[in-house]
Design brief:
Elements: E1 3-7, H1 11-22, E2 28-32, H2 56-59, H3 64-69, E3 72-75, E4 80-83, E5 90-92, E6 97-98, E7 102-105, E8 109-111, E9 125-127, H4 131-137, E10 146-150, H5 154-165, E11 169-174, H6 186-198, E12 202-205, E13 209-214, E14 219-223, E15 228-231, E16 233-236, E17 240-242, H7 245-249, E18 258-259, E19 271-273, E20 278-282, E21 285-287, H8 292-306, E22 318-323, E23 326-332, E24 339-344, E25 351-357, E26 360-367, H9 370-382, H10 388-392
Parallel strand pairs: 1-2, 1-7, 2-3, 7-19, 9-16, 10-11, 10-16, 11-12, 18-20
Antiparallel strand pairs: 4-5, 5-6, 8-17, 13-14, 14-15, 20-21, 22-23, 23-26, 24-25, 25-26
Helix pairs in contact: 1-8
C-alpha cells in the first residue's frame, strides 16, 4: 500500500491523516478539502470566533507547515467529483484522475438551508457551518441591529448568545413545542430558556417562519403566530445532513449517513469513513454522532484499521456548548429516557440533570458543574447507575456516587 487518500479536510480528516503517520505508515497521504483554509475547529465559529474573541490562526487545528513536515499532502480548495469503488481512483473537478490504494471519506455534514420559497435566497440570510459562513455575517453583529434566528438547537442558541452579548435585538423561533426538543429534556430546555430570557432574547416556541421578503429597511419576516417582524439579518440553524453525495454516486450503502461496520469499512472494500458523514454499529443498533470528540476518536480508530490493526470502534458520546458564561457539558445519549433527576450545583447558575431509563443511567447534562459532569461521565462509561434518590441528595458529595453500590437495573 503506497497511497491513502483522505477526502474531507475537517476535524476527522486531519485526525485520520495524522494518526496514519503516528502509527508508522510511510506511504503517500493526500488530505483533500473543498475549503480554501487548512483544517480548522468548527465549534468556535458560533462561539468565540463569532464573538471576536478568537483570531483566525487560533482556529486552525495545526500550523499549515505541520502537514508538510509530516509528509501529508494537504490539498485545499479542491473538490473530488467522483470515486471509483472498484479501483479507489479519484476523479477531481478538474478532470484529473488520481490513483489511490485506499480511501477514507471524512466529508462531514452540510447545513440545511432555508428553502428559496421562504426567502432563503435573499441577501442577509445566513447558515452557520463553515468559516466562510462566519466571515460572511461578521459585519452584521453591530449593537442595536435586529436578528432573527431560525432553529432552537445548540447552534441557534449559541448564535443567539453571541448576538445578545454584543447588544443586538434577538428573536429566536423554534417550530417544535420547545427548544432542544431532539437532544435534551424539558428540564434542560427550561433552564436554557430562562438563561436566554435573562439576557433579553425573545424565544418563540411552536412558532415557524412562514416567509421572508425584502423590505425597505431590511428583511420582513412573517411568523406562524401572526407576528410580522422587520430584521436586519437572519441566521438559519435548522440542522445538518451527512455529506454523502460522493458515496451515493459510488454505490456505497447509505443508512443515516455512509454505513460502516465497527471497523469503519464501508460496503466497498478499501473505502472507509469516519466522522459526521457516517453511521456505525452501537448498542444493538446504528448511530451517527455529530461531535468533535467522535470525529477525532473514530478517525483515529479507522486509521488503525486501514493499516490492518482491526480494532472495533466503541463510541463514548460527549458534547459541550458555550452560551454566555455558562458551559453545558453532556455525556452519554439520553434517547429513550423515562426520568430526569435534577441535582442543584454548589454554585449559582449551576445544575446537573441526570437521565434514566428503567433505573439505568443514560446521560447527564451539566451546566457550570464540571465535577458533576466528570462523575456522570465516569459512571456512564463504567456502566454504573447510582440510585436516582442518591443522585438527588445534595447532602451526599459527588464523589460518593462513585462508591455506592450500583443499581441492579
Amino acid at each position: 500500500m503506497t497511497h491513502i487518500a483522505v477526502i474531507g479536510a475537517g476535524q476527522a480528516g486531519s485526525s485520520l491523516a495524522v494518526k496514519l503517520r503516528a502509527l508508522g505508515f510511510d506511504g503517500r497521504i493526500s488530505l483533500i478539502g473543498e475549503e480554501p483554509a487548512p483544517p480548522y475547529q468548527r465549534p468556535p465559529l458560533s462561539k468565540k470566533y463569532m464573538a471576536g474573541e478568537m483570531e483566525l490562526e487560533r482556529l486552525f487545528l495545526r500550523p499549515t507547515a505541520f502537514y508538510g513536515e509530516q509528509g501529508i499532502d494537504l490539498v485545499t480548495n479542491t473538490r473530488v467529483a467522483k470515486i471509483n469503488p472498484d479501483t479507489c481512483a479519484l476523479t477531481m473537478d478538474s478532470g484529473e484522475t488520481i490513483a489511490a490504494d485506499k480511501i477514507a471519506l471524512t466529508t462531514g455534514a452540510s447545513p440545511i438551508r432555508l428553502p428559496a420559497a421562504l426567502g432563503g435566497g435573499l441577501e442577509a440570510v445566513y447558515t452557520m457551518r463553515s468559516l466562510a459562513d462566519a466571515d460572511a455575517m461578521a459585519h452584521e453583529f453591530q449593537m442595536g441591529r435586529r436578528v432573527l434566528i431560525v432553529g432552537g438547537g445548540y447552534v441557534g442558541l449559541e448564535a443567539a448568545a453571541v448576538a445578545a452579548q454584543r447588544g443586538l435585538h434577538v428573536t429566536l423561533v423554534e417550530m417544535a413545542p420547545r427548544i432542544l426538543a431532539r437532544v435534551a429534556s424539558e428540564e434542560t430546555a427550561n433552564w436554557i430558556r430562562d438563561m436566554h430570557a435573562s439576557h433579553g432574547v425573545d424565544i418563540r416556541e411552536s412558532c415557524a417562519l412562514q416567509g421572508l421578503s425584502q423590505g425597505t429597511g431590511g428583511l420582513d419576516a412573517i411568523l406562524s403566530d401572526g407576528t410580522e417582524l422587520s430584521v436586519d439579518f437572519v441566521i438559519c440553524g435548522i440542522g445538518v445532513r451527512p455529506a454523502t453525495d460522493l458515496a451515493e454516486a459510488a454505490g456505497l450503502t447509505i443508512d443515516n449517513g455512509i454505513a460502516t461496520d465497527a471497523f469503519g469499512c464501508t460496503s466497498a472494500p478499501g473505502i472507509f469513513a469516519a466522522g459526521d458523514c457516517c453511521s456505525f454499529p452501537w448498542q444493538n443498533g446504528r448511530i451517527r454522532l455529530e461531535s468533535v470528540p467522535n470525529a477525532i476518536d473514530q478517525a483515529e480508530a479507522v486509521a488503525a484499521n486501514m493499516l490492518g490493526i482491526e480494532t472495533p470502534y466503541t463510541a463514548k458520546p460527549w458534547f459541550w456548548s458555550d452560551q454566555y458564561d455558562v458551559k453545558l457539558q453532556i455525556a452519554g445519549l439520553s434517547t429513550g429516557y423515562d426520568r430526569v433527576v435534577i441535582r442543584p450545583g454548589d454554585k449559582p447558575q449551576s445544575s446537573s440533570h441526570w437521565y434514566y431509563r428503567a433505573g439505568r443511567l443514560l446521560a447527564i447534562d451539566a451546566m457550570n458543574d464540571p465535577r458533576a459532569y466528570m462523575t456522570g461521565k465516569r459512571l456512564i462509561e463504567a456502566g454504573q447507575s447510582p440510585d436516582p434518590s442518591i443522585v438527588a441528595d445534595t447532602a451526599l458529595p459527588l464523589k460518593s456516587l462513585l462508591l455506592v453500590k450500583p443499581n441492579a437495573a
